[in-house]
Specification:
Number of helices: 5
CATH architecture: 3-Layer(aba) Sandwich
CATH superfamily: Vaccinia Virus protein VP39
Largest sheet: 2 strands, antiparallel
CATH topology: Rossmann fold
Order of helices and strands: EEHHHEHEH
Structural class: mainly alpha
Radius of gyration: 16 Å
Distance between the termini: 14 Å
């Protein structure tokens, strides 16, 4: 549910509101790095072109999937430490990518529900899938 004119949704996500904003052409026939990363993590926001190209990358670099998953595991460990041990309850995630669980807010708010997260990305594909 959108709050008319404010650019926010009931879920707390920001939706750009500007005159002349054009719809995003996701072009699912062309692989996209954010959707490929989503595929490596086992997400659902990817298409055949993304999966095929990701599999080619995995064939050339067999640890690609593991590297992506280890990167996500590091995010989870770091956020748990920062929220639980250090007491940080505000985060700015720059270069968000496609939301694949567990995402930063899921980890942080699982420890401290009052934690606030701002996601920022300038990739139209990522913004369209948020």
């Amino acid at each position: 549910m959108s709050d008319a004119g404010t650019g926010t949704t009931g879920a707390g996500w920001f939706t750009p509101v500007a005159a002349g904003v054009q719809p995003v052409d996701l072009n699912i026939e062309v692989p996209h790095p954010a959707r490929m990363y989503d595929y490596y993590l086992g997400g659902k926001e990817n298409f055949p072109a993304d999966r095929e190209t990701a599999e080619q990358a995995i064939a050339a670099f067999p640890n690609t999937r593991n590297a992506a998953r280890q990167n996500r595991a590091f995010l989870v460990r770091a956020v748990r430490h920062l929220v639980g041990e250090v007491g940080i309850h505000q985060f700015l995630d720059i270069g968000t990518g496609i939301p694949t669980s567990p995402n930063l807010h899921e980890v942080a708010q699982g420890i401290a529900p009052d934690t606030r997260v701002v996601y920022a990305d300038n990739d139209p594909t990522v913004l369209a899938l948020h």
